[in-house]
């Protein structure tokens, strides 16, 4: 069933099979002189007319016509294979794929990319929040979808990014656990005689990440100045231990080691030398500050298990090594160390990140600022 066409509308008709309206626009001719046509579909004739007009405007503005046949699953596969795996570390690429497979593709995978709407993305994010996922995880889902659609724009598959136009959920950061000053001192006492006591003490006193502390080498420590250079991390990927650059440019930093901690590192070095002499040729000269009993790098998973045993023996319960980093930052701020300095020590990408995570510790400082203004603006006038 065909209707009367207006100027520049193209061919418009209603399909007998499902009663949907179709529109076909002539975009030009290829090198062999064959016509290049593009079709659009909608529930009403009016919608088809608007789609054809939009398509015509895009062509007139020099924009390529979107690929209306490609599905979201196909776009993700092309993005993973042709672009993403060459841009990020294998572990990051694996994380992107996991997010897509578990959270995006089950809902949006069969949709055509050109048909995606902002409402589709908003509905997806809403369902994920209702399912109990944290706001940070849902924001990550949105970010992965947005990056994929950005690539679709570069490939001229779509002309706008509906994920970027959607509303990200409000970020709600849960306050992480931190050791109290008494707990921290108790843990430090329990670490004195432990083979890797210096490792955990260093994490607690400087806030180093687990991968960063395991990636430290003796060449990174300047004994004269007490400065430790942090520029790599040790991690496990696909069952293999390997080193890589730190997370961000700001993560590559120099950290001043407290004097007692420096002494503890030197004692640790002497203990390591004794182990090396005892094993002789069986010792592996890896160059790492913290090693296994045969000189090889320490597996992060083994570190987790060992630290849990230490905490249980100390009567502290279940703790993860990462909570030493959180404790270090919290204790520094509680002692009056400036937020900017703490951010630099931790290697955060920005001061805002530090403030978002640890801002609640600064409540007494904000109260002090209010008290100071009372004295300044409402205090007794000295001219009286």
Q: What is the class of the largest domain in the CATH system?
A: Mainly Alpha
Characterize the overall form.
elongated
CATH architecture of the largest domain: Orthogonal Bundle
- For this structure, the CATH topology of the largest domain is hpI Integrase, Chain A
* The number of domains: 3
Describe this structure in words.
This protein folds into three domains: 11-60; 72-165, DNA polymerase, domain 1 (Orthogonal Bundle), CATH 1.10.150; 181-364, hpI Integrase, Chain A (Orthogonal Bundle). Mean pLDDT is 85; it is low at 1-8. Strands 1-2-3 form a three-stranded antiparallel beta sheet. By secondary structure, the chain is mainly α. Helices cover 50% and strands 11% of the residues. The chain contains 15 helices and eight strands. Strand 6 (232-237) and strand 7 (240-245) form a beta hairpin. Helix 3 (90-108) crosses helix 5 (135-154), helix 4 (118-130) runs antiparallel to helix 5 and helix 8 (197-206) crosses helix 12 (322-334). It has helices at 45-60, 72-87, 90-108, 118-130, 135-154, 162-165, 181-191, 197-206, 210-214, 259-279, 300-313, 322-334, 339-346, 351-358, 363-377; strands at 11-14, 21-29, 35-42, 221-222, 227-230, 232-237, 240-245, 253-256. It is elongated and about 85 Å long.
In short:
The protein is mostly helical.
């Amino acid at each position: 069933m065909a209707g009367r066409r207006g100027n520049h509308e193209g061919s418009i008709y209603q399909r007998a099979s499902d009663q949907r309206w179709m529109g076909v626009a002539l975009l030009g001719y290829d090198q062999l002189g064959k016509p290049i046509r593009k079709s659009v579909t909608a529930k009403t004739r009016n919608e088809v007319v608007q789609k054809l007009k939009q398509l015509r405007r895009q062509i007139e503005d020099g924009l390529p016509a979107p690929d209306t046949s490609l599905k979201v699953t196909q776009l993700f596969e092309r993005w993973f294979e042709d672009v993403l795996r060459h841009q990020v570390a294998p572990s990051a690429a694996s994380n992107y794929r996991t997010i897509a497979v578990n959270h995006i593709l089950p809902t949006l995978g069969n949709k055509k990319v050109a048909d995606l709407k902002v409402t589709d993305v908003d509905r997806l994010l809403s369902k994920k929040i209702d399912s109990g996922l944290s706001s940070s995880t849902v924001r990550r889902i949105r970010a992965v979808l947005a990056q994929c659609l950005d690539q679709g724009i570069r490939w001229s598959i779509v002309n706008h990014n509906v994920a970027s136009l959607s509303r990200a959920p409000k970020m709600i950061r849960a306050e992480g656990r931190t050791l109290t000053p008494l707990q921290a001192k108790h843990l430090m006492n329990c670490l004195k005689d432990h083979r890797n006591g210096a490792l955990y003490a260093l994490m607690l006193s400087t806030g180093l990440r687990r991968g960063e502390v395991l990636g430290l080498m003796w060449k990174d420590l300047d004994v004269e100045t007490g400065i430790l250079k942090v520029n790599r991390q040790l991690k496990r990927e696909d069952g293999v231990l390997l080193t890589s650059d730190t997370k961000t440019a700001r993560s590559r930093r120099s950290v001043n080691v407290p004097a007692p901690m420096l002494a503890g590192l030197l004692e640790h070095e002497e203990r390591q030398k004794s182990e090396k002499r005892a094993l002789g040729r069986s010792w592996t000269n890896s160059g790492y500050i913290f090693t296994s009993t045969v000189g090889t790098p320490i597996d992060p998973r083994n570190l987790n298990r060992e630290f849990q045993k230490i905490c249980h023996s100390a009567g502290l319960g279940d703790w993860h090594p990462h909570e030493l980093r959180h404790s270090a930052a919290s204790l520094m701020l509680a002692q009056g160390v400036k937020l900017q300095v703490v951010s630099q020590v931790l290697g955060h990408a920005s001061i805002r990140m530090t403030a978002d995570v640890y801002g609640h510790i600064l409540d007494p400082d904000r109260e002090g600022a209010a008290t100071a203004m009372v004295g300044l603006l409402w205090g007794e006038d000295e001219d009286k």
